[in-house]
Amino acid sequence: MRRFVTPLLLLLVACALLIPAQNVAAAGFPLIPGTYKQLDNEILPGRGTESMPADFAEGQLGNMIWAESWDGTALGTDWKVMCPQISGPATLLFDGVIGGTGQRIYITPYSGGTLWLSGAGPWAGGAPFYTATITSFTVTATKQYVGGQLTGVVSSINFMGNFEGEGQCFSMVISNAELVGMTGHPVLPPPAGIWPAFHGPYDCDLIGSHGTYWNVHDVTLDILGNCATPSQPSTWGRVKSLYR
Known about the structure:
Blueprint: H1 2-18, E1 34-37, E2 46-51, E3 64-70, E4 75-86, E5 91-95, E6 102-111, E7 114-118, E8 129-146, E9 149-163, E10 169-182, E11 211-224, H2 236-241
Antiparallel strand pairs: 1-11, 2-3, 2-11, 3-4, 4-6, 4-7, 5-6, 6-8, 7-8, 8-9, 9-10, 10-11
């Protein structure tokens, strides 16, 4: 009997060590709470893509974002935002287009996704990397039209979530995501250089071929400690009270 127990125990221990390795990579090495700004050279700007099922299929459910930091040479050395996808229709906040020319402002909800942070950043507490589940993600886009044709988009992106294993959470703001290219577009063709691959739509494991390209600037990351999940759903009044 003993000769069978020992190998079985070894197998169980090996599985226990391998399966949750990604989730516990940061266990025991909490992040350092604080605010980290691109303006202060504490976090890098980035490049991003948003996948679509076809050219010009903006705003479709399942369109998926993949963004990574960019240091001028390499992607993803500092942070990655992986696979939030459009979860509902965009809401028109402002319509200033007259005769085909002007601006429209939309806000679009997304769901899902993961934030990855390098263990070499100023927020790191000793782990090789940190991952967080994104719990809220919205994009507010200002679109410029000339003669009925889209000529530019500047977006503000706000999202937050919870880090795995440490009871910490984050809030991240990208104040300036600028459209620099779109597949099939006559005025804004896909840019040259290194860009994240299109992931999706819908399926993060699917590599696509249609979508948009974005330069990401003015990044601010807030790391918060002791983020307890409330037992009751938050109300708008409670959320406002946090910022008084």
